[in-house]
Write a structure and sequence with these properties.
CATH architecture of one domain: Orthogonal Bundle
CATH superfamily of one domain: lambda repressor-like DNA-binding domains
Radius of gyration: 47 Å
CATH topology of one domain: 434 Repressor (Amino-terminal Domain)
Structural class: alpha+beta
Distance between the termini: 125 Å
Order of helices and strands: HHHHHHHEEEEEEEEE
Amino acid sequence: MTLGSLIAKARKDAALSVDDVAAATNLRAAIINEIEKDNFSQCGGKTYARGHVRIIAKTLSADEREFLRIFDEEQGVEKRTMRDLLTENSVMQAPDGSRRISFKTLLIISLASLGIAGIAQIVITNSSSIDLAEPTVSASPTRSGSATPSNSGEPSPESSISTGTGVSVIITAIRAKSWLFVSDSAGRTLFSGQVLKGSTKTFTTDTRLDLKVGNAGGIDIEVNGKKRDAIGVDGEVVSLSYGADS
């Protein structure tokens, strides 16, 4: 007898209909009918067909080992993978052949991709925004209503900014360039920028000049016509104030 006829006989001996076996095994009645006709093409492959034979044998209280031996002989099954064995014994769920990615999974992937892209954009933006631009030059109006600030990229022999004549300070970047900030007693900014090496800037006002020098060792200072001693060393930041009696 073939395996299909043995299954049909065992079912009838158990006084069960095809529908009864289908309900007990969760298999479709049409598949069970085909198995009893020795047609296993609707089972989805030999591995799943073998699993169907096993569960039908258990339901019919038949010798499942004998059923499986006959199936292997008739279907020419030589060797099965561990995955096949796990599937047959219901340890591993059989793949449905058409896995679908859920909307939730797609949403998570999309949000993660946007987050990574956003972080990358921030890093790139921050990196590109680092610059070494020099401070802009600003100056308060002179008494005549004009100012002549200078912060060009090339050293200028001399430039003058004046809001009066009581105090005179001459800054010369003789050894190296330096950052410089100059204001008068009224708090007006006369200069804010960089004095390039080889350039000279002259500032005059009525009562007091306040200076902040970023590289004290690079410049020389002359106050009210008198050259002053070195105000500091290279890289030292120094704040100074000079009046009419300095």
